[in-house]
Amino acid sequence: MIVRTTSGDVRGEPIATGVRFRGLPYAAAPEGELRFAAPAPAPAWDGVRDTREAGPTAPQRHRTIPGLDLSAVVGDGWRPGGDYLTVDVWTPDPGASGLPVLVFVHGGAFIGGTGSAPVYDGTAFTRGGAVLVTVQYRLGIDGFLPLDGGETNLGLRDQLAALHWVQDNITAFGGDPANVTLFGESAGAISVACLLGSPLSAGLFHRAVVQSGHANMVRGRAELERVTQSVAAGLGVEPTASAFRKLSTERLLDAQDALLKPGGGPDLRDEDGLDRSFGLSPFLPLVGDDVLPRHPGAAIRAGAGADVDLVAGTCREEMLLYFGPTGLLDVLTDEQAVAMLSASHPDAAGVLRGYGLGDGRKAGQVFVEAMTDLVFRDGVKELLECHQGRSYRYEFEWRAPRLGACHGMELPFVFDSLAASASLVGDEPPAELAREVNAAWTRFAATGDPGWSPTGTTHLG
C-alpha cells in the first residue's frame, strides 16, 4: 500500500484491521547545525520510501526498575540513527475520508521511551474506525536543556511540528485534520497539558486526553539553568549550543547519566521550596519562551484551550510502580519517608502526617498515597478545574497482581494491547475492560464525549 505525503511516497504494511506505516519523518534529522535548533522540514525523497519497519529512536539509555520488565511500554532502548523525528501511523483505510485522528505522545520522564513500543499498537483504534499517530521527539539534554544560542523546549517544538505534519498529511491516510485528539501519558501527558496552554498550538488539535500528568510539572528558567550549568561543568565546556554540538551523543548521554545519579544534580527546588518533578526527572518544560510564555496552568485558567474537549485522570496507586517491585514499600521507615520527600517539599513531615505517618500505618503505604496525590492526582484535579471547556475525569482502579493500579497501568487498556503487556498486567487481565476503555477513547476522539458523565469521576476497573 503506497501513500503520498508532502515529502514523498511511502509504502506501508497491511495488517488485519488496515495498514501500518512506521518511521515517517515529520522533520529533518536533528544533526549538525540542526542540533539544538527548532525542527526543520523533512527533506523530500525520490521513489517510494519503505516504512514497514520501526525506525531509529531518540538517543537514550535503557532504564529499568529492579524486578520489572518495562520494555513493552518504554521499548528496548536506543535504536541509533539521526532520522528519528518520526511518526508511526495506523489507518483502517488510506482510501477513506473523515476518520477521527488520535495523536499519542509517549512518556518516559522526558529522558526515554518511544512511540513504537509494543503497547502503543494501533490495531484496536483502527478496528474502531480511527487513525492513530504515535510521535517520537527529542529527549533529555537534546530536547529540554536550555543552551545559549539554541532553542528552548525542543521536545515540545518537535511535538508541534508533528501536529503540523498531521494537518498537512493525515488526509492521505483517511484522517480528518479538523478532528484531531492529542493524548499522552506521564511525560507525554505533561506535554499535552503544556500544549493545551501554548499559543503555538491553536488549531492543531481539537480534543485532548491527559493520562497521569498535568500543567504544574514545569520549571522556571532559574531551575533549568542550574541543570545547564551542572551538565556543562561536568563536560568541561561552555553552556552553549555551539559547544554542545561538538560533543558526541554518547558523551551527552554519559553526562545525563551522571546528572541522574543520586546527588548528581543541582537542587531543583523553586522559590516555593518545591521540586516540581518530585525527583523523577531534572528535565521538564521551560516556562518563559514563545512555546510557554506563561505558566500553562495559568494560561488554561485564563481560557487557553477552552475550545478543546478534555479528558484527564490518574491511576489509583500511581507510585506503586516505583516502590512495589523494589520492595521499598515494605522496609521504608518513617524517618526515611520524611527525608525522601524533604528533597522536594518544604513541609514533608507535615504532609506525611496528614496521610497517617506516625499513627501506626506503614511508612511505605503512607508515602505511596501521599506521592500519588502530590505528583499526579492534585495536579490533574487542578487542570480540570482550570479548563474552561467541556471536560471529563477518570480514575483507573483495576489492580494487577504485582503492581496494583500503578503508574502506566491504564496504557494496555487504552490501546487494548493486553497481549503485549503481560509483564505489567499478569496472566489473566480483563479483556472486557480493555475493550471498554479503548472504546471510550475512540468515542471521545470521534464525538468529544467518552460516554461518561461530565460531572464527578468515572471509575475504570
From TrEMBL:
Among the Pfam families in the record, one is COesterase
Q: Can the keyword Magnesium be found in this entry's annotation? A: no
Catalytic residues (UniProt):
186 (acyl-ester intermediate), 318 (charge relay system), 407 (charge relay system)
Q: Does the keyword Metal-binding apply?
A: no
* Keywords in alphabetical order: Hydrolase
Q: Which InterPro entries match?
A: AB_hydrolase_fold, CarbesteraseB, Carboxylesterase_B_AS, Cholinesterase, Lipase_GDXG_HIS_AS, Type-B_Carboxylest/Lipase
**Which Gene3D superfamilies does the protein's record reference?**
alpha/beta hydrolase
EC primary class:
hydrolase
- The UniProt record lists the Carboxylesterase type B domain at 2-451
Q: Which family does it belong to?
A: Belongs to the 'GDXG' lipolytic enzyme family. Belongs to the type-B carboxylesterase/lipase family.
Protein name in the entry: Carboxylic ester hydrolase
